[in-house]
């Protein structure tokens, strides 16, 4: 039972992004059907036994990029990432709210331990990313507290912040540490780090929520981010918080001005990104955190 919530999160992201009314997953038939309630003729049925068996019945409604996203989702179904038993499942937006994870306590302890190991791995491989990730966790936790999220959400935000750039361990050092501007093809490789991070983390059941947040941490509020170009609150609030904390940490780390000047500059930069990269309300909360920090230095 404890995978239902993950499946729901995934499906909600997909549904919003692809503008669909429903996604029907049949574990019995190994098929996935997406479509709209009022118009069955445009349903799309995909088989997730083998990639080569994917059948696209109605191509015209869904473009190639959307298919890529669905294939990635199917890949995870095939790997058992979202397997939840033998029964068929139909998910609507609020269909499974409140489903209780029976292994919550065990998973929590396990989650703490896995995060610790992974963070140590990052530290060993890449001290800069490690220091950066700790900084992001500091700011994201402060912003999340201001946003009145519950303690489970804040913990997931903190953990996802620690691990948000874990996918960078797969990027060659000459690209990762290149002192000059990256070429376009190099930048495309770097951009893969959020999906690679997702693939690393999502194999662990207790980390699947965190994996989703990591996958989306370079999405922009205005829809101009990657990998999916999700827009507005289709991006989970947890991810939005990590993303703004990432921006703050990168800005402060990359400059050697005095503290006062840094904060002023940063606030100006954040204002420019209001409703562009970040939700306006989060910009307000982030500025509050920065002003409070400055007062206490
Ligand atoms: Fe990143
Ligand atoms: Fe980052």
Describe the structure.
- The structure is a single chain.
- By secondary structure, this protein is α+β, with helices and mostly antiparallel strands.
- The chain folds into two domains: about 5-90, no CATH class; about 105-295, Hypothetical protein af1432.
- Helices cover about 55% and strands about 10% of the residues.
- It contains twelve helices and four strands.
- The protein is globular.
- The model is unreliable at about 50-60 and about 85-100 (pLDDT under 50).
- Bound molecules: fe (ii) ion (2 copies).
- One fe (ii) ion binds next to helix 4.
Radius of gyration from CA coordinates: 20 Å
β-strand percent reads 5-15%
* CATH class label of the largest domain: Mainly Alpha
Identify the bound ligands. Answer: fe (ii) ion
Write the layout of secondary structure elements.
Layout: H1 4-18, E1 22-26, E2 31-36, E3 39-47, H2 64-78, E4 88-91, H3 104-125, H4 127-146, H5 151-163, H6 173-176, H7 184-191, H8 193-201, H9 208-215, H10 237-253, H11 259-272, H12 280-296
Antiparallel strand pairs: 1-2, 1-4, 2-3
The structure holds fe (ii) ion (2 copies).
Residues 132, 136, 164-165, 246 line the site of one fe (ii) ion.
Key terms:
alpha+beta, 8% strand, globular, 2 domains, 297 residues, Hypothetical protein af1432, 12 helices
Question: What's this entry about, in short?
Answer:
With 297 residues, the chain is an alpha+beta fold. The chain contains 12 helices and 4 strands.
